[in-house]
Design goal:
Helix 2 links the parallel strand 5 and strand 6. Helix 2 packs across helix 8 and helix 3 packs antiparallel against helix 4. By secondary structure, the chain is α/β, with parallel strands linked by helices. Strands 1-2-4-3-5-6-7-8 form an eight-stranded mixed beta sheet, with helices on both faces. The chain has two domains: 229 residues, Rossmann fold, CATH 3.40.50.1820; 43 residues, no CATH class.
């Protein structure tokens, strides 16, 4: 565990796994600490992983200004980490909601990013959204699973505006390629690791400017990987493909049989794909 100071003086923490040229990794949630990323299925054997605990999560301090949890303001923390690491440019890897921070960082500091890997990314920052029909098509890929009927009924209710806590829990299996013991343990271990107050601020008014971000990404010439999970209900592959189309030099990959956490579903394939891209 290592600490550094953000530009506003908030003490932030990061975990380091592996050796070599660092890859700064941004967790999702939004506003979940980085523990759930683990070592990304063993990617740490190929590159050094610098796992940032966003402010107010994990070992990072709670800021004096709760407004600094907003996505666009978290960009300043990534820049402070780059300065702390003493790197002129950094490679970035972001998962889920962390992709919004990464895209916003690229829009503001394109010259500071070497390679960018967005893993089953959230797309709020660029104004893209999955349709109910797209999610339904992805869900139907799991129709032979023993838990499918209850989960699909809950999904239909949620999309009809009748969400309940039990309904949200019922669709948990959709977020993994296999709802086995390993997936259930990974899911259970995430309890209590998200800052709900911070998550409520993350996407607040002013957090995103999709038109400006899309325009900036269109001029970002460095290599970009966008990796989708074939069965990811959160960000279906067609949305990730559309995200990839915003970059001039993007590689779009769908990991077969993977959900929202592809390093859990098939670590070997995930590591092979991401390590080859990162170099």
């Amino acid at each position: 565990m290592t600490y550094f100071s953000a530009h506003d003086g908030t003490e932030l923490a990061y975990h380091v796994f592996g050796e070599g040229v660092p890859v700064v990794c941004l967790p999702g949630g939004p506003m979940q600490d980085s523990v759930y990323l683990g070592e990304l299925g063993g990617l740490s054997s190929r590159r050094q992983l610098v796992m940032l605990d966003l402010r107010g999560t994990g070992r990072s301090a709670i800021p004096e200004d709760a407004g600094s949890y907003r996505c666009d303001r978290l960009v300043d923390d990534v820049e402070a980490l780059r300065e702390h690491l003493g790197r002129e440019r950094v490679d970035l890897l972001a998962h889920c909601a962390g992709a919004n921070v990464a895209a916003s960082y690229v829009a503001r500091y394109p010259e500071r990013v070497g390679r960018l890997a967005l893993i089953t990314p959230s797309t709020w920052a660029v104004g893209l959204q999955a349709t109910g029909e797209s999610r339904r098509e992805v869900a139907l890929l799991r129709k032979d699973e023993p838990w499918f009927d209850a989960a699909f009924a809950a999904l239909e209710a949620i999309q009809a505006g009748n969400a309940t806590d039990d309904g949200w829990r019922a669709i948990d299996p959709f977020f993994y390629g296999r709802w086995d013991a390993a997936a259930q343990a990974h899911h259970a271990a995430q309890d209590g690791h998200r800052n709900d107050e911070a998550a409520a601020v993350f996407g607040g008014d002013g957090a995103f400017d999709p038109d400006a971000t899309r325009a900036a990404l269109a001029t970002f010439g460095s290599p970009v990987l966008l990796l989708a999970g074939e069965t990811d209900l959160n960000t279906p592959p067609d949305v990730v493909a559309e995200f990839a189309g915003l970059f001039p030099n993007a590689e779009f990959v769908v990991q077969p049989g993977a959900g929202h956490f592809p390093w859990v579903d098939d670590a070997e394939r995930f590591v092979a794909t991401t390590a080859t891209f990162l170099g």
